[in-house]
Amino acid sequence: MSAAPSTQDIIALLNVEEEIRLRVVPGAKVERLAIENASLKIWIRTAPEDGKANKAVISLLAKTLKLPKGAVTIISGHTSRDKRVRITLI
Known about the structure:
The protein is of the alpha+beta class. The chain has a single domain, classed as Conserved Hypothetical Protein Mth637, Chain: A (2-Layer Sandwich), CATH 3.30.1200. The protein is built from two helices and five strands, in the order H-E-E-E-H-E-E. It has helices spanning 7-12, 52-65, and strands spanning 19-25, 32-36, 39-43, 72-76, 82-87. The chain has a five-stranded mixed β-sheet with strand order 2-3-1-5-4, covered by helices on one side. Strand 4 and strand 5 form a beta hairpin. The longest helix has 14 residues, at 52-65. The radius of gyration is 12 Å and the shape is globular. The model has no long low-confidence stretch (mean pLDDT 92).
């Protein structure tokens, strides 16, 4: 397993609208992040039910980037593993 991407690595993936593409793997044994194919891949323990996985994604991204949860917003893909997320850098 490779090292987790740094904050700078993740920020480098942002486009001009401060959005990032990501792929979510819910129900994982271990929570982790990786960069694959110019997008962020996130493994979370939470099951994809009632929006819990989306909340876990927001929480993990905010914690990793040392930002408040309100700075991370899912723009599209609420019911999909492929999501677009806006990250408001402060």
